[in-house]
Amino acid sequence: MHAFILAGGFATRLWPLTEKRAKPLLPIAGKPILSHLLAKIPAGIPVTVSTNAAFAEGFEEWKKTIDRADVHVVVEDTRSDAHKLGALGSVARWVEEYAIADDVLLLTGDNYLGFRMENFLGRQRLGIPILAAHDIRDRERAKQFGTVIVDPQHPTHIKAFEEKPKEPQTTLVSAGCAVLPKETLGILVTFAREHPDNMGGIFEEFLRQGIEVDCFAFAEPWLDIGSFASYLEAHRLLIGGKSMIDPSAVVNGSTLEGSVSIDRECVIEGSDLTDCIIFPHCVIRDCTLRNCVIDEHCTLEGIDLEGKMLREGTKLVREN
Amino acid sequence: MYIVRSHVLLALWLITDLLIFVAAYALAYFLRVGWILSTDFPFAPYITVVAAVAPLWLLVLATTRTFHLGRNQASLRNGAYIGYAALVGVAIFTLAYYFAYTAFFSRLLLIYALVLTGACIWLWHIAFDALGRRILRRNPPTFPALIIGVTRESKALIATLEERKSAIKPVAILDAIGVKEKEIHSIPVLGKLDRLESTLTELHITHVIQCSDLEQSINLLSACRNRGITYLLLPSVLGIVERDGRIDSLEGYPVAVVAPKQSLIQWFFR
Known about the structure:
Number of helices of chain A: 8
Radius of gyration of chain B: 23 Å
Largest sheet of chain B: 6 strands, mixed
CATH architecture of the largest domain in chain A: Alpha-Beta Complex
Structural class of chain A: alpha/beta
Shape of chain A: elongated
Radius of gyration of chain A: 21 Å
Distance between the termini of chain B: 44 Å
Number of domains of chain B: 2
CATH topology of the largest domain in chain A: Spore Coat Polysaccharide Biosynthesis Protein SpsA, Chain A
CATH class of the largest domain in chain A: Alpha Beta
Largest sheet of chain A: 7 strands, mixed
Number of strands of chain A: 25
Oligomer: heterodimer
Strand content of chain B: 5-15%
Strand order of the largest sheet of chain A: 5-4-1-6-11-8-12
Helix content of chain A: 10-25%
CATH superfamily of the largest domain in chain A: Spore Coat Polysaccharide Biosynthesis Protein SpsA, Chain A
Shape of chain B: elongated
């Protein structure tokens, strides 16, 4: 088996945090989202991370920080959202270029998966694709995902798959984790030529061709980190209402409530922080921040902010 | 190079205003005295005082910010400012002439001078404004503007800026969520905010006009501050869509004000 992690998006909804770094490299609880995902993949499964030319450097740097030697980064020659290959197109290109003849564990790099990967892989039947699915219990939200309709008699068998349906029949959604057996890779390559951006469509295609698709429904936490709100939610989930302060950071006379992470070389003085992510090299004095993400090298003095993402180098100093 | 264009234009504007001021007073002299050089009321000392007073008058006029290259010179408010400056000019001239020669002269001449400076300067400003807009908009424009957000308000704003040939020329649009439209009134929609930095650099943006995406205002402002770009915010981003908002001061704090509609008399005291 070979793991393939999709990390080639431009994450425009998380601008400005993703202005200079890819979404899977955003930190949660002290390490990138991608590192959390990588930690789930059992040793012995080689991993390929697919990214784009704009963020390639960041992934190469990330690779130096991990303790696995079997991680390879492939770079799509795209530098903007308008020219990207599409998720399925990226997989197909990799399969063709590297003549992949193994089963493929397909993962999306911006998802947090709460379940044990061994449990998921242990449920895979030989030659049968399997898809991890999570019940989000919200029909309105389900419209944003690929929904998985299972056979009521056999809940592990997928009856239908609908990508971002207008009227979802279920709240069970695809969690960005699947195994595609080597026998199905030819279908994927052919399908991707016409539908390079329709990742969910490949499962519809399997079903259309009469290929069984299994479902691994899990109850553990799952987060699709696609927006500011979901990023903060993932942060709260992993930090768990505590403070995580890098040893090199200086925190004086400040109150930290909820989940707060303060990265290296930060200076926090006389401030109240609630549920915040503070990136490296920030200086925050006499501020009240709630639900904020502050990017690197920001300087904030004498201000109150709520629900803001600040771009790198922002300087907000209140003049008295 | 194109920033120099605006500086040259401004210098030309100031010089021509000085010349028009002096010429208007000269014309007032001849209208009152006749087309002769009177010995009872000599022209040379008169015009010397006018020339000496002209820079002071220009300073008064400048305090009204009429020389802002983006201001609509034909507006009534601008006309009122110019009239006010003309009145102050006449007062300064009268005082200066009296102090220099301890002599009074025709009150009608002062009225002529007031009317002529006010009217000539306003007309010249309107003409110069039209000329200036054409020059400033020539490619590459002197003040290229980036519009943030594809909304009803931004579309209306772009239409107005284009129709009135504004000195601030929209050259590109970015939108936080991405839209299907490829262009608005021939101005290209370049993509989402991830293209902000490259757009600011490549198009040499001098003005960013935020028309939506309030949550990104700090980040847009930060980008503008870092690059010395002027940031403008449409009141509609704050929900003020009825054209009745204004920026005022509350004990020294700048505040956006939306006050209940008032009578014309109350307008002076709001």
